[in-house]
Automatic annotation (TrEMBL):
Segments for region (Disordered): 180-213
One Pfam family in the UniProt entry: YceD
Protein known as: DUF177 domain-containing protein
Domain of life: Bacteria
Organism: Actinomadura physcomitrii
Amino acid sequence: MPHESRTPLTRLDPNAPLVLDTRALSRQPGSSREMRLSVPAPEDFGVEMVGVPEGAAIELDLRLEAVLEGVLVTGTATVPLEGECARCLDPIASTFEADFQELFVYPDTRSGGNAEDDELRLEDDLIDLEPVLRDAVLLALPLSPLCRDDCPGLCAECGARLADDPDHHHDVADPRWAALQDLAGELSPEPPEGGRGDSGPRGSVDQQGKQEG
């Protein structure tokens, strides 16, 4: 009966920007390491209306600490954001900070062997920080970002930007008078087809009468 291989089908790339090497901690509980990194943002790093441009610099302030179960990673990510306002659709740009903390368990310990599917593990003393960073940043991003808190948005009638013209409005007839206006249009008299009544065949008759007289 063949033995089941414990070698993972995919291994982490130690040269990947968000893969960290923890061998300097020597798996000694209490040992720690602090580092500051600048890494390029991966693709699709955002939500529908705002996100981090692919390749933009993400600044990481990290602390790696060895514990009995694995390596505890605590950090802050500073990311540049680009998107559009959910009300006026103007482009927006800002800087966002997200804090995170995650435990990566050793795969060869009892806790690592019984780890749940949603728990993260070390692979050959390497840590993949990307899923942690995605959760920390994406879950904190607003689904409806605003260029400013009191953005008035766009006119529902013509789409004009209301911030440019605070007095912008459209005259709307009172719907309670709409039926009367329609009725007035139906009852208005129509002018005769021949124009005024005193200029027509009558004039020719009078002229003829004078001739007969």
